[in-house]
Amino acid sequence: MTDPLLRERVDAVVIGTSAGGIEALSVLLPALTAGVRASFFIVLHLPRERPSLLVDIFAPRCALRVCEAEDKDPIAPGTVYFAPPDYHMLIDRGPAVTLSADDLVNFSRPSIDVLFESAADVYGPRLLGVILTGASSDGAEGLEAVRRAGGLTVVQQPDESRASMMTVSALKRGPADLVLPLSDIARLLRSLDPSASPDTAK
User: Fold this and answer.
1) Does 88 participate in catalysis according to the annotation?
2) DSSP 3-state assignment of 100?
3) Is 18 a catalytic residue?
4) Measured distance CA(38)–CA(81) in Å, rounded
5) How many whole angstroms separate alpha carbon 28 and alpha carbon 118?
6) Which of 11, 39, 45, 136 is the catalytic position?
7) Catalytic status, residue 177
8) Antiparallel, parallel or unpaired: β 65-68 and 79-82
9) Cα gap 185→29, rounded to integer Å
């Protein structure tokens, strides 16, 4: 799980979550070290009519830059991008972020599937997809797209998820490379730091 080849093959990480997501991300994002060069893209289902406070919550707790994605943003390494409320977040050639107000997908905007599928098209085998706790099936098709593109797929253990529908749906769609508790997903993400040793990745 801390294979040094992993950090060489991952340019981007996509994370999808819903119910229980803030708590799950509160374990994962503080685990990232400043040397991680991958770009992170996160869809967390939130009420579409309210401003998001995710950057305010996580920026002080994360060693990487944390921002709300803006349309046509060039993608920077070592940066965490949150999808804004009521917009799909897509990855386009460049690479760059694109925002879309297209129809809801799986009753959601932003949609995890939309993010994962577009990221798989751009990053292919250099993508890591992570599905966390949630109370919908959004993300199952997207994780399958990551798998088909040759990326690494990770699902939080359903019995640890606050809401297991999202993780169970993803696993029903197809096997994941890794099914892990949050603590091990945190270690996996920390191991993306080129300076991380087996000891510091624990």
Assistant:
1) no
2) strand
3) yes
4) 11
5) 23
6) 45
7) no
8) parallel
9) 10
pLDDT band of residue 196 (cuts 50, 70, 90) is low
Instruction: State the DSSP H helix or E strand holding residue 41, giving kind and residue range, or none if neither.
Output: strand 39-44
Which tokens belong to 114? 């939309």
Beta-strand pair 96-100/88-92:
antiparallel
The per-residue pLDDT for range 91-113, each reduced to its tens digit, is 999 999 999 998 988 888 999 99
Q: Which of 11, 138, 169, 193 is catalytic?
A: 138
Does an H or E element contain 12, and which?
strand 12-17
pTM for the model: 0.93
Q: Which two tokens stand for residue 90?
A: 């897509």
Length of the chain: 202
Which of 18, 39, 136, 169 does the annotation list as catalytic? 18
What are 63-99's pLDDT values in tens digits?
999 999 999 999 999 999 999 999 999 999 999 999 9
**Strand pairing category for 65-68 and 12-17:** unpaired
Pairing of strands 127-131, 178-180: unpaired
